[in-house]
Amino acid sequence: MQHFKTLSAYLDYLELPRPEHPMLSVFSATGDGFLPCPKESSPPITNDCYTISFKKIVKGDLSYGRTKYDFTNGALFFIAPRQVLQWDSSVVFEQKGFSINFHEDFLKGTELVHQIKKYGFFSYSANEALHLSPKEEKQMEAIVESIDVEYQNNHDEFSKDIIISQLGTLLKYANRFYERQFSNRKELSNELLEQFNQHLDEYFASGYLQVKGIPSIEQLAESLSVSQRYLSDTLKKETGKSSTEHLQLYLIDEAKNALLNPHKTVAEVAYELGFEYPPYFSRLFKKKEGISPTEYREKYRMN
After folding, report:
1. Phi, psi at 186, each rounded to 5°
2. pLDDT tens-place values along the chain, 303 residues long
3. Do domains 2-183 and 186-302 have the same CATH topology?
4. Domain HTH araC/xylS-type: where (predicted)?
5. How many angstroms separate the CA atoms of 68 and 198, rounded?
6. Secondary-structure class of domain 2-183 per CATH
7. Domain range 186-302, CATH architecture
């Protein structure tokens, strides 16, 4: 798989204009303007850059990770360094919108280098992109226009700080709009939680816990056709608990039933639930319940 270490090399590969800044490029189509057309097709590639883009695809599919996405209605999507991109010649872009690309080193020495890692949407799949209302779209475009003005001007000692500040503002708005999107999609959130629990029920009933061990969040997310981060963020917004917490609570609930069998040792219950190390099971149980598995068993017997 081809990997691009610099922004210039990545844009050259895409057959797009070289950047005004070695670590930052801004393409913005306002009024009657159009975005430059990228390379017609590409096998899987990766690079060391962040991308924030708003665009529509007239027809065809853009593959992002393992997911294809239809951009017919237009969406804002985010790509982090070293994520896999792929598309073919069937993809036709509507050349409106904007695209900001910046090398990860552009953030070095700034607060944003730490803050950007907290935004989960850089780890979302393309089908989890942010759909903007017309009002939100205008807000984003206004910020990008300010970034573009600074980008096109002669760079001085203030330019980077100003652009970094504007990028930070854009990401904060994106975070707000994602929160709105989660809130407005409660039906989907509830459905995702039901599917999550149903998959765990099926996994447990099949005996996979003893054979394959506890499933990872990545495996669970893949089985639900969503990204790991999106699954956790959706469940967190809906229930206040992350996907990891839901998995742990499910295992503890099953453990409570198993511990009521006096013929099973705590270690046997741990192995039955897919824990490779019984002490870890005991620590997790006590953390969640406030008492050890043995104490829980004794408490039940006393009652």
Report:
1. -60, -35
2. 899 999 999 999 988 888 888 999 999 876 555 677 777 788 889 999 999 988 755 445 554 444 444 444 567 889 999 988 887 766 555 667 899 999 999 999 999 999 999 998 888 876 677 878 888 888 998 999 999 999 988 777 788 999 999 999 999 999 998 888 776 665 556 778 888 888 888 888 888 887 888 999 999 998 888 888 888 888 887 788 889 999 999 999 989 988 988 888 999 999 988 898 999 999 999 999 999 999 998 887 655
3. no
4. 194-299
5. 25
6. mainly beta
7. Orthogonal Bundle (1.10)
